[in-house]
């Protein structure tokens, strides 16, 4: 099944599209039992995601049930300007800091990854079945090199945790060099994933995702159930097939996986 595509003319339109998507997903998830786990990315995503989230109706922002976690993090303290979590904490009201799954950065990188995995399993259980996570909603970004989270071309992530949910990267081509990241396996078991991608330098990555070209991590990270939505601006959409092209249709229905 092809991903659902939303092309926006500007940030305001993209925020509205994201707000509508979040509204639909939260309405569904709030009707189900348990904790709602939303994975988010750093880089350019925090401001636009935060605007869209807080544009949702207040009755959907049930902070007793929603927990937000980083799909990757730089190996820096959360007060460092490079910290993805730190960026969100600066954008969220301080009284909501508790909704973020803590990333216990310590002086041992592998231990940091293991402790993060423990936190994810403890906070997002019991929805997690067995050893594979079932994250409710993932918001992924990508770089012009096709990386997503901190999964870079060249298979640089090392698996150091008991369940393989979280890996470590020590030679990131994008500074800082050292990071922790959700693994491909944990990203691919998501119930719903969405990419937020803007700018012409990433148009080839958007096309790779559309074409299921698994030479790039961003395309390799699409969920097994094919429930994937792309939020792109016009520049990032420029390599997609034209609206009326035959390439667009793909009637394969999504795998039942929820
Ligand atoms: O370093 C990172 O890069 C990607 C993409 O960032 P962007 O600024 O090009 O959108 C981001 O998704 C990831 O979370 C971050 O750690």
UniProtKB/TrEMBL annotation:
Record GO terms (molecular function): 6-phosphogluconolactonase activity
EC numbers on record: 3.1.1.31
Keyword Hydrolase listed: yes
UniProt keywords, alphabetically: Hydrolase
GO BP annotations listed: carbohydrate metabolic process; pentose-phosphate shunt, oxidative branch
Keyword Hydrolase set for record: yes
Glucosamine/galactosamine-6-phosphate isomerase domain sequence ranges: 11-228
Reactions catalysed according to its record: 6-phospho-D-glucono-1,5-lactone + H2O = 6-phospho-D-gluconate + H(+)
Functional pathway: Carbohydrate degradation; pentose phosphate pathway; D-ribulose 5-phosphate from D-glucose 6-phosphate (oxidative stage): step 2/3
Region (Disordered): 238-258
Entry GO CC: cytosol; nucleus
Family membership noted in the UniProt record: Belongs to the glucosamine/galactosamine-6-phosphate isomerase family. 6-phosphogluconolactonase subfamily.
Functional note: Hydrolysis of 6-phosphogluconolactone to 6-phosphogluconate.
Name used for this protein in its record: 6-phosphogluconolactonase
Species, as recorded: Caenorhabditis briggsae
């Amino acid at each position: 099944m092809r991903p659902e595509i939303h092309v926006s003319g500007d940030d305001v339109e993209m925020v509205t599209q994201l707000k509508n998507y979040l509204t639909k997903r939260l309405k569904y998830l709030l009707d189900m039992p348990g904790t709602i786990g939303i994975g988010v990315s750093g880089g350019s995503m925090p401001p636009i995601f935060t605007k869209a989230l807080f544009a949702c109706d207040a009755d959907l922002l049930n902070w007793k049930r929603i927990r937000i976690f980083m799909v990757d993090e730089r190996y820096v303290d959360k007060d460092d300007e490079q910290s993805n979590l730190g960026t969100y904490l600066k954008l969220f009201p301080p009284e909501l800091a508790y909704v973020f799954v803590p990333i216990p950065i310590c002086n041992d990188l592998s231990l940091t990854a293991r402790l993060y995995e423990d936190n994810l399993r403890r906070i997002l259980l019991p929805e997690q079945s067995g050893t594979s996570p079932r994250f409710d909603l993932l918001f992924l970004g990508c770089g012009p090199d096709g990386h997503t989270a901190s999964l870079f071309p060249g298979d640089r992530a090392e698996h150091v945790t008991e369940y393989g949910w979280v890996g470590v990267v020590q030679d990131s081509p994008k500074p800082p060099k050292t990071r922790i990241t959700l693994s491909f396996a944990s990203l691919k078991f998501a119930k719903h994933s969405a990419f937020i991608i803007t700018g012409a330098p990433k148009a080839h990555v958007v096309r790779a995702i559309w074409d299921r070209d698994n030479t790039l991590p961003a395309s390799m990270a699409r969920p097994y159930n094919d429930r994937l939505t792309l939020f792109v601006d016009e520049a990032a959409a420029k390599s997609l097939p034209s609206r009326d092209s035959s390439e667009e249709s793909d009637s394969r229905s999504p795998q039942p996986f929820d």
